[in-house]
Every structure is written in C-alpha cells, then in structure tokens.
C-alpha cells in the first residue's frame, strides 16, 4: 500500500502534523509555579486584582497633604495599611512600595525635602507623580497572556505578581525512541560495513527542545531487523509514550519493517512520505490508545540528516499541537547565495545565519547521510517546489529548535 504513496506537500505535511497533535492535546492540569517552567498555559492568564492592587509609593520620602510646611503625623512602611491623611498641612513618612494614604496630594523624595528646627517638612513634588496607580499595569480580570503561551520564568513571575499559586497547563508529551538497523554500532569507530548509531544519542535532545519528556530508558535499539522484533519493540514503546519515534526502515528494502508493523498495529497514516529533499520517506501515523486517546508514531528516515528534517517537519509541529502551543512558524531571511530548487519537491538547504539573523549562508557537507553541515547550521533555507532562490532573495527559513546560546 505505502510503496506507491503520493508524497504530501511539505507545508501541508507540517499543517497535518500540527492538527493531529492539537486534536489529541492532553488534558489541563494544575501545577505549582516553580514546576511550571517549560509548560504551556491551558487557559489565559488573567489579572486576579488590579495591578498594582493599591496606590503604591515609588520612592522613600513623604506623603503630603495641602500646602507646605507639613507636620509629620506618622509613618507607613511597605506591607502596612496606610491610615488616611485627613488634614491639610500634615504628612507621613513613606517607604518605597508602601501604600499611599488616601488624601495624600503628592509624594516628595527624602533627598529633595528639608526639615526645620520644629521638625516641619518642606519641599516641592516633582511634576511626574511618584506613585503607581491601581490598575496601571493591569485591571482585574484583564487577559495578560493567551492560552497556548509557553511558560518561561517571566510568565511565572507575572503569575506570582497576580497572586497565583498554581497554573493550569498542558502535560508534556512523553516520547520514546526506537533505533532500527542491524548495521549500527553503539560504541567504537565505524568500519567493515558498520556505522555508528548517530540518531539514538541525538534525537532525545531534539525531542526535549520541542517540549517532550524522554527518559534514557525510553531509548532502545538497535532493534533487530525482523518484523517480530519491530512489533514487540513498537508495542512496548507505545505502552509508555504519547509519541514513539523510530529511525530507519521507512523504505521498502528487504529489512525495512516499519510499514508492515504499522499495518499490523491498525495504524492510520497522518502523513505517508513528504515531497521534500532530503527526507521524503518520513511518516507520521496515529494508533488508537487503550484509553481512547491516540498515540503517534513518527517514522524518521535512516539517513541521519533526513531524520532530523523529519523531526522538524512532522515531530516539532505535532509536539506543539499536543502541548496546545501555536504551530512553529517560519521566519524570512535573505539568502547570501543561490539555492537550487528540487523540481516538484521542497528543498531544505542547511544554512548558517549571520550575527543579526537577517541573512543565511548555505553550509557545506549537506548530504542526507551527513551531519557535519547540520552541526554548523542554524536551520534550513526553504525553496518551494518549482522555484529556486537567487543570491539576495528573501526566502522562508526553518530554524532548528536550538536554545539560546547554542550556535552563537
Ligand atoms: N530504492 C530506493 N532506495 C532508497 C531510496 C529510494 O527512493 N529508493 N531513498 C533513499 C533515501 S532518500 C533515504 S532517506 C533512505 C531511507 O531509508 P530508511 O528509512 O529505510 O533507512 P535505512 O535503509 O534503514 O537506512 C538508510 C541509511 O541510513 C543509515 N542509518 C540508519 N539508521 C542510522 C542511525 N541510527 N545512525 C546512523 N546512520 C543510520 C543506514 O546505515 C543507511 O545508510 O533510503 C534510501 N534508499
Ligand atoms: O530523502 Mo533521503 O531522506 O534524501 O536521504
């Protein structure tokens, strides 16, 4: 059946993978603020009160009422409740962060005030008010961040400011990885027909950068090149994961058992081959889970660069959808050199961004069996079917899911 599958357009494949994830997103759960880093908001974050919740002094000084000089009648510190200032010609000493008393007309900085022998305070307020008004930052119930926002330290900070103890977030998808290929070595140098497995060690890092959890125990292989071994390994991996990635065996060679395994499991293809070079034999399949929620299997081609292309084409959008995040977007950059097209296929050409991220230069060593170019690139220049890019053209750019500080 799959031998003659029609490759899906690359953009459409990304959209199908995202929709498949979105429709299977995990249920919202409540997580304490310190644990929420890296999760995704399941509901909009709203202000629980006005922010600030009360008129708040921005300075150390005096809260005054009426014309000067002012008689000091008390003090209000941060954390205290300020008594009203009822009488003209009076003031209270006030600390930064303290509640401004009702009735105060102005705040005067301590260093811009004087006190006479009788202890009366004088000074001139600045033209700009020295306190923050209730609701200046947000009004009660105002939406501060939409559902789907990635929770980062600043999001946790603003939630704490609002008074949240827990956040309603999506679960992180759990992933597993099965490496297929009897020719693979897991230690030592390549030779005599054997190559090192370069996907088992790297795919978990990419999956984590896309928001998945993957334990070292959820990485297995090389799985023997028999249908029975494939079936057993995939069944076992699916029992503990929302997504199982496999590497190799996506074609129809004598020891490629992925498609027969999927047929045996009653899987339904979301995407079966993509019109992209490199990477076209990639696939994404949906498998019914015991609890009614679907599980997913992403078949990454064996050629290592193609496997990473499959990851960012199908797995990154799927994981974004499962987490309730927006679909990963392409940016636009100028290509510093011409990039040929690939006929009816989309061409993904590894490229390195310049310092300001505006221009991309194609890198060398970009064969689908190579990883050298990938380790030196920020992502891929995208050349759509039937087109080519000339030096200086603005082109779409697909970034690798690197984190800040990687590949400076
Ligand atoms: N008759 C055809 N043969 C092939 C075609 C084709 O169109 N017609 N396409 C080629 C392309 S493109 C790709 S990509 C590969 C995909 O094949 P599989 O997904 O079935 O992968 P394998 O055959 O298992 O391996 C391909 C290649 O990659 C090496 N490999 C596999 N796993 C790893 C790993 N974990 N680490 C490092 N290297 C790995 C493997 O040794 C092979 O050299 O099919 C082509 N063939
Ligand atoms: O499409 Mo293959 O994935 O070029 O190496």
Automatic annotation (TrEMBL):
Family under the similarity heading: Belongs to the MoeA family.
Pfam family membership, one: MoeA_C
Pathway assigned in UniProt: Cofactor biosynthesis; molybdopterin biosynthesis
Organism: Paractinoplanes globisporus
Catalysed reactions, as listed in the record: adenylyl-molybdopterin + molybdate = Mo-molybdopterin + AMP + H(+)
Keyword Metal-binding on entry: yes
Cofactor(s), by name: Mg(2+)
Name listed for the protein in its UniProt record: Molybdopterin molybdenumtransferase
Lineage of the species this protein comes from: Bacteria, Bacillati, Actinomycetota, Actinomycetes, Micromonosporales
Functional note: Catalyzes the insertion of molybdate into adenylated molybdopterin with the concomitant release of AMP.
Class of enzymatic activity (EC top level): transferase
């Amino acid at each position: 059946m799959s031998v003659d599958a029609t490759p899906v357009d690359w953009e459409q494949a990304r959209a199908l993978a995202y929709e498949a994830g979105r429709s299977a997103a995990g249920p919202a759960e409540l997580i304490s603020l310190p644990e929420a880093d890296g999760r995704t908001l399941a509901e909009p974050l709203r202000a629980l009160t006005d922010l600030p919740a009360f008129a708040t002094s921005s300075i150390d000084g005096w809260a005054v009422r009426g014309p000067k000089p002012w008689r000091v009648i008390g003090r209000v510190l941060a954390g205290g409740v300020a008594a009203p200032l009822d009488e003209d010609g009076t003031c209270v000493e006030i600390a930064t962060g303290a509640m401004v008393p009702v009735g105060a007309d102005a705040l005067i900085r301590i260093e811009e005030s004087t006190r006479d022998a009788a202890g009366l305070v004088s000074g001139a307020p600045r033209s700009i008010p020295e306190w923050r008004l209730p609701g200046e930052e947000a009004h009660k119930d105002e939406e501060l961040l939409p559902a789907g926002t990635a929770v980062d330290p600043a999001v946790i900070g603003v939630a704490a400011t609002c008074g949240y103890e827990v956040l309603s977030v999506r679960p992180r998808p759990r992933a597993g990885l099965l490496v297929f290929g009897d020719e693979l070595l897991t230690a030592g140098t390549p030779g005599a027909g054997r190559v090192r497995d370069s996907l088992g060690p790297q795919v978990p890092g990419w999956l984590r950068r896309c928001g998945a959890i993957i334990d070292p125990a959820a990485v297995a292989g090389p799985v023997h090149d028999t249908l029975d071994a494939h079936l057993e390994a995939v069944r076992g991996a699916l029992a503990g994961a929302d997504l199982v990635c496999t590497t190799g065996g996506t074609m129809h060679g004598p020891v490629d058992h992925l498609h027969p395994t999927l047929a045996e499991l009653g899987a339904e293809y979301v995407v079966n081959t993509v019109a992209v070079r490199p990477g076209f034999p990639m696939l994404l399949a949906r498998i019914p889970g015991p609890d009614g929620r679907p599980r997913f299997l992403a078949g990454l081609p064996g050629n290592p660069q193609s496997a990473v292309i499959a990851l960012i084409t199908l797995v990154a959008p799927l994981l974004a959808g499962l987490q309730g995040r927006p679909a990963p977007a392409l940016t636009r950059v100028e290509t510093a050199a011409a990039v040929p097209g690939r006929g009816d296929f989309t061409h993904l050409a590894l490229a390195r961004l310049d310092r300001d991220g505006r221009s991309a230069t194609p890198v060398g060593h970009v064969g689908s069996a190579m990883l050298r170019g990938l380790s030196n690139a920020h992502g891929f220049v995208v050349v759509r079917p039937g087109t080519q890019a000339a030096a200086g053209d603005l082109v779409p750019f697909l970034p690798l899911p690197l984190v800040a500080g990687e590949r400076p």
